[in-house]
Amino acid sequence: MVLSIGGENHEVTSTGDGPVDATFAAIKKVFPHGARLQLYQVHAVTEGTDAQATVSVRLEENGKIVTGQSADTDTVVASAKAYINALNNLVVRREKTAPA
Residue 43, by phi and psi: left (phi above 0), alpha (psi -120 to 50) or beta? Predict the structure, then answer.
């Protein structure tokens, strides 16, 4: 997987119990965190072979719960985007609750 953060490409490889698990593990290599996956949902928005999937991800870290969502015709891509969206929400939540 190649993940671009701030214009810098990070190339990582990972394995898992399937393509989505491997994708989440690869993202965790690029952005290490202690969040635990609580929910992973996939829904088809449209019908047919080019159906668009919406993915919802819920993460929990130290009592903070965040969600992320995304849609794409590729379920793995939608999953990666939803996971990253949740991680971004977690970073924002961390900053809001950090002591001054």
Answer: beta
Residue 66: what pLDDT? 97
> Taking phi first (over 0 means left), then psi (-120 to 50 degrees means alpha), and beta for anything else, what does residue 98 get?
beta
8 A C-beta contact, residue 56 and residue 75: no
Band of residue 46 on the pLDDT scale cut at 50, 70, 90 = confident
pTM for this entry = 0.90
How many residues in the chain?
Answer: 100
Element spanning 74, H or E: none
Q: Which residue ranges form the domains of the chain, and what is each CATH number?
A: 2-97 (3.30.160.270)
Q: Which two tokens stand for residue 18?
A: 């399937």
